[in-house]
Amino acid sequence: MKNDPNKNKGFSLVELIIVIAIMAILAAAIAPALIRYINKARKADDKAAADALGSSITAAFSENEYVYSYLHAEANSIIVDGKKGQGYYRIVCFMNAGYAMTGWGNGTSLANLNSTNPTAKYLDSKGRVQAYSGDALTDFQNDVAEGRKELAKIMSETMGAKIFKLKFTRNIYMDQWIITVDEFDKIHVFVGGGLNNNCYYIDSNHISSSSHRNRLYEIWPECDSEYNKLEKPPSSWITN
Questions:
Q1: 91 by DSSP, 3-state: which?
Q2: pTM above threshold 0.90
């Protein structure tokens, strides 16, 4: 019996090209949806991390007198012409995401984080700026030092040996966690980038006081609507 010459015939070149073209079209159609799904999942992970961080600090703020003294002093240093309002969000500290910490576990200080020092000033009952002096100044400085230690302990317990790594933004423009306190002593967690020790506040438009005038995004306890609109990480600090 003779073998049928067409029985084991493979795909022709034309057929292979057609199959490859169909696969390319399907991939092009599916890829955007897949990328959106992945970025949505990454955002959810970052929000969950911010919730853990913000919740732990808020709990300490309400329960620990030294943490309260430190963060409240930060909030009260938002002073312009005798009134609160230099910036809506006072930056307490900011951290480079994914950074391995060495030495904060003992809670000795926030020296391994970038932080802003509260000024030894306060507002009196009439809204006038007053400066601590004498024993009051010493007490203020001691409370702030203890507050920094306690806050470092809280962050160490929450994050462990390494700061939460940002999953969505995670680029040179958006690679920092920022902890802030508003004028009502409420904690807010932002993500952003390019901050340094000369950055003291974030205004109501979520623009930092840095020389870059960076656009930052609150993700806890409320999420910035502009953050939710992002399809991909910003390619610059200023996005609007």
A1: strand
A2: no
